[in-house]
Amino acid sequence: MQFIFQLKSIGPKLVPFFKTATIYFVLFGDDTRPESPLCCIVKCLPIISLMFFVLMHGMSFSEYYSYSRKVLAGLVFSCIGDAFMVWSTAGYFIPGVAAFAVAQVHCRLHIMYS
């Protein structure tokens, strides 16, 4: 019963994420993704909506919100990685992978030392 209550209260807040992810796959779902600012913005929108989701749950510098801050930092690096991956053929593949690696290491370290 608790799960259904959480789903009803949290689920609607995730609708922007699902909508922006759907928009990205509808617009750029095929194998030909243009290296354009529009593609970059649309590709980063799902991650940005997840950032807003984390911020909507509250944020401060207290110990209570340390997990939220770390998730937000991981999402920021993931968004940077997505932005670099749009221009991967222009030489930004390695920085994109590095940004994703920072996000993964950041999250793994948090899990190990929490």
Sequence of secondary-structure elements: HHHHH
Mean of residue pLDDT? 85
Whole-number tally of structural domains = 1
**β-strand amount:** under 5%
Q: DSSP helix count? A: 5
Topology:
Elements: H1 2-10, H2 15-28, H3 37-56, H4 66-86, H5 93-112
What would you say this structure looks like, in words?
The chain has helices at 2-10, 15-28, 37-56, 66-86, 93-112. By secondary structure, the chain is mainly α. The chain is 74% helix and 0% strand. Helix 3 (37-56) packs antiparallel against helix 4 (66-86) and helix 4 packs antiparallel against helix 5. It starts with a helix and ends with a helix. It has one domain (13-112). The mean pLDDT is 85.
Concise description?
This protein is mainly α and 114 residues long. Helix content is 74%, strand content 0%.
Question: What keyword list fits this structure?
Answer:
mainly alpha
